[in-house]
């Protein structure tokens, strides 16, 4: 017989809060606009990356993705995990020295039964994440 049975929901919430605090989610001064389609010119990409995130009430996920377009303000990638507009994600560029970038989902388009095109915005311009030259 157990004297103490932890509440699974509160354990998940505490874990999520610790992760968010550690990587800076919810503390970013997000800019207005759809950064995946505005700002500096978009460049076609073919980048293997890893996406970290979690939906409300869900466990965190790590998922391989493919970056297909990007600029200093954000980008677009293909993802097989459902995400929604306004969700914060952590991107890891597997090809560019595992550079990390916090971002926010600004658009999701269903591509087929398994894949979505996800457009994200960066809180600050960061062309180096994609390995693009810095603009002046």
Rg calc = 16 Å
CATH architecture grouping: Beta Barrel
Number of separate strands? 6
CATH class: Mainly Beta
Tally of distinct domains: 1
Proportion of residues in extended strands: 35-45%
Biggest sheet: strand arrangement? 1-2-3-6-5-4
Taking the sheet with the most strands, its summary is: 6 strands, antiparallel, barrel
Q: Can you characterise this structure?
A:
The protein is mainly beta. The protein has one domain: Thrombin, subunit H (Beta Barrel). The chain is 12% helix and 38% strand. The chain is built from 1 helix and 6 strands; from the N terminus they run H-E-E-E-E-E-E. It has a 6-stranded antiparallel barrel with strand order 1-2-3-6-5-4. The longest helix is centred in the first third of the chain and has 16 residues, at 8-23. The model is unreliable at 32-37 (pLDDT under 50).
Describe what is shown at a glance.
The protein has a single domain, classed as Thrombin, subunit H, CATH 2.40.10.220. Helix content is about 10%, strand content about 40%.
């Amino acid at each position: 017989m157990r004297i103490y049975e932890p509440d699974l929901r509160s354990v998940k919430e505490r874990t999520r809060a610790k992760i968010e605090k550690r990587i800076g989610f919810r503390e970013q001064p997000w800019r207005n606009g759809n950064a995946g389609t505005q700002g500096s010119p978009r460049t076609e990409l073919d980048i293997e990356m890893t996406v970290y995130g979690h939906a409300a009430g869900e466990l965190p996920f790590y998922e391989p993705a493919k970056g297909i377009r990007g600029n200093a303000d954000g980008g677009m990638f293909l993802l097989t995990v459902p995400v929604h507009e306004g969700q914060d994600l952590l991107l890891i560029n597997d090809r560019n020295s595992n550079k990390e970038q916090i971002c926010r989902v600004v658009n999701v388009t269903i591509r087929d039964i398994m894949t979505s095109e996800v457009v994200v915005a960066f809180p600050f311009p960061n062309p180096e994440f994609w390995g693009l030259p810095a603009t002046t």
